[in-house]
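Table 4 source record.
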Amino acid sequence: MDFIFEVLPNTRKYLHSVIESNSLEDLNKIPKGFNNNIIWNIAHLIVSQQILVYKLSGLPLMVSDAFVEKYRKGSKPEAPITLDEVEEIKGLLFSPIQKTQEDYNNGVFQNYQEYVVVTTGNTLKSVEDALQFTAFHEGLHIGYIMALLRAIKI
């Protein structure tokens, strides 16, 4: 699991750099042919990690129910987000990953409710599976974010 705990902070560093190097307008822009935006994708990754790792382990999340509802799978941007919301998202990029690593090293994850990932057909049977899938999921969305970045610069 050491490698996963190297990968996840690095993906989050990339996401942080995307936020820092783009305007609020660009973060909120939904280009033609897309159904979401850069900032939604970033917040979605935070929510997904929390659900896959903590909720399915029967543990409390580090994000609010409202945040989960706004960025969960199947949601989409309903309105542009504010600079304060961007700051909240930036603030949630690293601390949940650090806490997950601490909790993992301290043996906090004792139970796991199996979860079938509909899009890939994989069954997550343990927190280790969830962490590995989280890294895969973040890679997918980073690719999508890169496509969004190209689309908004046209």
